[in-house]
Specification:
- The chain is globular, with a radius of gyration of 17 Å.
- Helix 1 runs parallel beside helix 4, helix 2 runs antiparallel to helix 4 and helix 2 runs antiparallel to helix 6.
- The protein is mostly helical and 207 residues long.
- The chain has one domain.
- The protein has 8 helices and no strands.
Length: 207
């Protein structure tokens, strides 16, 4: 568990590279919706690497800018909640959406709404609240999440029923609010192991 808490984002980089190679060899044989959802998973891996590994100071930034924490090394976001939110909720939902594709359009929409939520956070909320020109996660939000989200809705919207849209919207809100913010608060621990200095100090310097 301790290894995964410290290195899950490095595993995301490896999985992203493997997925990119697999898509290069197999993407042309997929239907468009399936391709979009596998690319969506790839963008998630890339986004997590930008946030947590390079430049990697998203944990400190979130605790400082969004939560105004007095101890951004461990509260309220910590190494354990970071693992659960990104691996269990993130990898799990995006992978399942890619595997099911048109068989669960509501889930596909829900995961895309998580990508949209990240765009709002990184492109609007953090720059305005934190007065930051750049924050870790901004580049992948702008260049990956945003175009893939637009592409998804252009392709999938005509396929979706009212039920798909309603359920997808509700679960998207649940994933964004409960799966991220709710999980951070549920797992908050003032005595949690601290983040690495590289994940916090740049945020303090820019705040």
């Amino acid at each position: 568990m301790r290894f995964m808490e410290r290195h899950w984002f490095d595993l995301a980089a490896v999985l992203g590279a493997v997925l990119a190679l697999w898509l290069m060899g197999n993407g042309s044989s997929m239907n468009e919706l399936s391709l979009i959802l596998w690319i969506s998973l790839l963008t998630l891996f890339a986004h997590q690497v930008e946030e947590w590994r390079w430049p990697g100071w998203f944990p400190g930034m979130l605790n400082v800018v969004l939560f105004r924490s007095d101890d951004p090394w461990r509260f309220p976001l910590n190494v354990r909640s970071g693992l659960v939110v990104n691996v269990v909720v993130g990898w799990g939902s995006y992978l399942l959406a890619a595997l099911l594709h048109e068989n669960a359009l509501w889930l596909a929409m829900a995961t895309i709404l998580v990508s949209v939520g990240n765009c709002v956070l990184h492109l609007l909320v953090i720059p305005i609240r934190g007065k930051m020109i750049y924050n870790p996660g901004m580049v992948t939000s702008l260049l990956m999440f945003l175009p893939v989200s637009v592409w998804f809705f252009l392709v999938a919207w005509p396929m979706m029923s009212v039920t798909d849209i309603v359920i997808g919207f509700v679960i998207g809100v649940v994933l964004n609010v409960g799966g991220v913010i709710g999980m951070i608060h549920l797992l908050q621990d003032p005595n949690a192991p601290p983040f690495e200095d590289r994940q916090v100090k740049p945020a303090l310097a820019k705040s």
